[in-house]
Specification:
The chain has helices spanning 46-54, 76-82, 99-110, 126-135, 151-163, 181-197, 209-215, 233-238, 240-245, and strands spanning 8-17, 20-30, 35-39, 61-66, 69-70, 84-87, 169-173, 202-205, 218-223, 226-231. By secondary structure, it is of the alpha/beta class. Helix 6 (181-197) links the parallel strand 7 and strand 8 (202-205). The longest helix is centred in the C-terminal third of the chain and has 17 residues, at 181-197. It is globular, with a radius of gyration of 18 Å. The chain binds adenosine-5'-diphosphate and magnesium ion (MG).
Length: 251
């Protein structure tokens, strides 16, 4: 692993909101084939860190690289074109469009075919969009309005939209949030299958420890904006400091 170059890397990134530092001097790297979980208590800075990695926010200091290229100040769309796929903690699908249309628009945006957004979107890339919906288990619901899908199905749709840009690394912010046990298992086995089939490394934020320890090949613990521990799941699970940060929670 140490011989490979990271697909995604942060070096000493810091982000403050006024006097409050949400992410402090964080360094991390994601290597090919890895499934890395970021865990940490609410407010630890996980989503802010994702924003720095995806370009929704710029760090005050530090550097972000994607496939060996410094992208610290590049906007999100440029990072998407470089191969970064992302799903959000808060649902980002268009509720009044069908599931199929949501994915078609994702494909058009990724291919910069925005001139087709109006008019031809309903025809464009139909087969590819349907195939992506099939991959996430939504083929039979592709003509339903996104806003009418169950919460779990909306998250699955978001995953299909994230995949529509053919990402080479996938960032998922709490992909199973709000899902029941069965939905969580389905969602995870899908992400696992897709990541394995297409060799896409995954960096995901997750609050459910059973998910983390059944899925991740490495775990990064963020507490108060800083990396507390970064290591193999078994090592993290046994770490006394992690147990303290999560006192009361068992995992
Ligand atoms: P997590 O995803 O780990 O729950 P966040 O990254 O969402 O944490 O938030 C980390 C901290 O930064 C929280 O205390 C939050 O209130 C604060 N924060 C996040 N975004 C902003 C913002 N835009 N302005 C001010 N404070 C923010
Ligand atoms: Mg968050």
């Amino acid at each position: 692993m140490s011989l490979a170059s990271p697909v995604l890397e942060a070096k000493g990134v810091t982000k403050s909101f006024g006097a409050f530092t949400a992410v402090r001097n964080v360094s991390l790297a994601v290597y090919p084939q890895e499934v890395v979980a970021i865990i940490g208590p609410n407010g630890a800075g996980k989503t802010t860190l994702f924003d720095l990695l995806t370009g929704r926010k710029a760090p005050d200091s530090g550097e972000v690289s994607l496939f060996g290229r410094v992208v610290t100040h590049e906007p999100p769309w440029r990072r998407v074109h470089r191969g970064l796929g992302r799903s959000f903690q808060v649902s980002s699908v268009f509720p009044t469009l069908t599931a199929l249309e949501n994915v078609q628009i994702g494909i058009l945006l990724a291919r910069k075919q925005t001139f087709q957004l109006f008019g031809q979107a309903s025809l464009a890339h139909r087969a590819q969009a349907a195939a992506l919906l099939d991959q996430v288990g939504l083929r039979d619901r592709m003509d339903r309005l996104a806003g009418e899908l169950s919460y779990g199905d909306q998250r699955a749709l978001e995953l299909a939209v994230a995949l529509s840009s053919r990402p080479k690394v996938l960032l998922l912010d709490e992909p199973t949030a709000g899902m029941g046990g069965e939905e969580t298992d389905e969602c995870l086995s899908r992400v696992k299958a897709i990541a394995a089939a297409e060799s896409i490394p995954v960096l995901f934020i997750e609050h459910d420890m059973s998910v983390v320890f059944s899925f991740a090949t490495r775990v990064i613990v963020l507490v108060a904006g800083e990396v507390l521990v970064n290591g193999a799941p078994a090592v993290v699970r046994a770490d006394e400091r992690v147990r303290e940060a999560y006192f009361g929670e068992s995992f």
